[in-house]
Amino acid sequence: PKFFHPRSPTDSASSVDPHITPESAFSQVSTISKATGIPQNTLVTLIELDIERNKVSNALVFAPQYVNILEVNLDLAKNYPEHYQEFLRNIER
Question: 55 vs 15, 68, 86, 88, CA distance in Å?
């Protein structure tokens, strides 16, 4: 519950696609906020920044919007290590 979740395998051909719609990401904000104590507006901002970052990196103004939840989750762990200590310890092993 502390991380954003990808699309279900039935919605993604590879089942490991890190891209979800902004709506799907926004729908997970409340759960993640409750699990971590990170304010909802902070989580919304992280999603919005990822949407913009993807637009710029693809150099497409009219590209479909998506959220790369892998990047957002890594940002969460990096910026809020106090909430993700267990995850960070597992990575270090």
Answer: 23, 11, 32, 29
Q: Are 22 and 51 in contact (CB under 8 A)?
A: yes
80 Cβ contact partners less than 8 Å away, ≥ 6 residues apart: 36, 38
Residue count of the chain = 93
String of DSSP letters for 14-67? SS---EE-HHHHHHTHHHHHHHH---HHHHHHHHHHHHHHHHHHHT-TTPPP-E
pLDDT bin (cut points 50, 70, 90) of residue 14 is low
- Can you tell me which residue has the tokens 């954003």? 4
